[in-house]
Amino acid sequence: MSFLGAKQNFNAIAPSTSKASLDTLKLYYDDETIIQSTEEYDLYLVGNICTNLDQQQIEKSLENAEGTFAYVLFLKHKKETVIGTDKMGFFPLYYTDNEHNFIFANFIPHIKHRLKKAEPNWDTWDELLNTGDILGHKSTIKGVSRLRQGEKLSFIKDAYSIKTFWRYEGIDFVGPEDYINLNNDLMSESIEILSANDAKKIFPLSGGHDSRRIAITAYSLGIDITAITQETFNRDLFDEDTLIATLIAKELGIKKHIKLPQPDFKTQREDMIYKDYWCGFESSQHTWAVNISKNVKKNSLIYDGIIGDYTINNHCLKDIPEYLNNYNNIDKTTSLVAPTQKKIHLKDHLTTSPLQNRIRTELKEFPLDCNQITLFKTFNHCRRNLSQWYIPFLLNGINVNLPYGYSPLFLQSLSLDIKYRLDALYQHECMLKINKAVAGIPSTRENHDARFWIGLGARKGNATPFYPCGIVASDRVFSYLQQNLKNKILDGIFLRAAPDYIQSSRSWYYEPLQRLNLFLEWLETDENHLPVLYKGKPPFIEMATKGVFDK
């Protein structure tokens, strides 16, 4: 599900599934688009919206709506076009005003296909190479931005502005008992509201707490659950996720539990490149999700729990407990978040400012209270990195449901008094109040060794393969780096002599560079001939990876 729009000189696009002209805006959209037209407005919406819209106050109604969606709203009397997403910004919407055109789309390749020239955003790549997370509004392509949480675009005539309609402004703090009780109430409310449609509901089950709590709550509400689990193997090569998910499904009496075997190495590598392409190379994580997307039917509703690990389990505080005593010191917080030493150094002239300065600037987008780092991680790491796992689902017409992103629950999840935040894993504490048996099943959030999982019967298997070794970082990529003598020798001599061994043995260093190399090749590839809302496996992937998957 997606749309693409353009203003001004952008008139030479071949017809897509459907198109509409909103004043001077040309909009292309696919079959899953929800269309609503009145005397006052035309609305085009994609995604899962769970609020009855008030036609008399349509703009405000969209701002307050719950769900994960994006929309184009044409206000006829005002002759204003509004382009936005859900207030949390978890449905992607990219835009650019490059080349005397304004173009926007849900998937970054759809914008890139229409650009005559595309260049890398080196600030973004500095962040990806060293932290894995993109900060703020940037994308991997220079001049292409992603709409932030709580923002929308407003067009009047040929001028546009960004309007902010929602920001976190601080809340009152409570103790554990009040926190847990209200959090459970709001979790039930969230799933009840977000599930109020006829779509087939798919619940991914894994070894963590977030998906388990969603399943427990849905079960308590009598929702028909179809669970799905992708076989994956941990560092000790045991599949904890399928083992734990099976125990949860059995305890809850879930009759429909789809267990997907790990694909062969060739397929996994193809899935890596496919996800990289459609995510605009913005995230290297959760490539296993591509296989799940192939096994879920169009128009289904898939649930995701990524936000809860940060807002409720306080995951980002575990490694930096000193933050709790220094949260009102922006310099200290910056030093805790920024990498102490860069893994990969781009040449200084490529970036606009040092990475630490950009991290500090992004932290200042959020109020200086004890939730600053949680908000920073939620809207940068979760929203810009982890959430890319569901891009293949959106491409295939599958909606996404984010219960922990339901705004009353999201805000209340931040209300636990700071002195209690590291006392427990509060997802687990919340589950204990609802279903002790399921809450008591072991979790990957607990520190168990290989012998523990062997004793429970976890299956042993193969590790996830490395990025295809046939994709080798080129001399051009290394020309952008500041290299010490060791890296010059490795990159200039040994990499050429034994690329498979060198790239695999130092994957933490070479895999990001392999991805950058493929990205640069993509930018130079003319894809203007592709249909406007093209989806699938593009010719670029076939061309760039020919013969490399079996290496």
Overview of the structural elements:
The protein is α+β, with helices and mostly antiparallel strands and 551 residues long. It is built from 22 helices and 17 strands. The chain has helices at residues 58-64, 108-112, 122-130, 176-194, 210-220, 240-252, 265-278, 289-293, 308-311, 330-337, 355-363, 372-384, 391-395, 407-413, 426-434, 436-439, 450-456, 475-479, 485-497, 499-505, 507-523, 539-544, and strands at residues 3-8, 18-22, 25-29, 34-37, 41-49, 67-75, 80-85, 94-96, 101-105, 144-146, 151-156, 159-164, 201-204, 226-230, 256-260, 301-303, 399-401. The model is unreliable at 8-17 (pLDDT under 50). Helix content is 36%, strand content 16%. The protein has 3 domains: 3-164, 4-Layer Sandwich (Glutamine Phosphoribosylpyrophosphate, subunit 1, domain 1), CATH 3.60.20; 176-312 and 377-456, Rossmann fold; 475-544, no CATH class. The strands form 3 sheets. Strands 2-3-1-9-8-10 form a 6-stranded antiparallel beta sheet. A 6-stranded antiparallel beta sheet has the order 4-5-6-7-11-12, covered by helices on one side. A 5-stranded parallel beta sheet has the order 15-14-13-16-17. The chain starts with a strand and ends in a 7-residue tail after the last helix.
Can I get a quick summary?
36% of the residues lie in helices and 16% in strands. The chain is α+β, with helices and mostly antiparallel strands and 551 residues long. It folds into 3 domains: 3-164, Aminohydrolase, N-terminal nucleophile (Ntn) domain (Glutamine Phosphoribosylpyrophosphate, subunit 1, domain 1, 4-Layer Sandwich); 176-312 and 377-456, HUPs (Rossmann fold, 3-Layer(aba) Sandwich); 475-544, no CATH class.
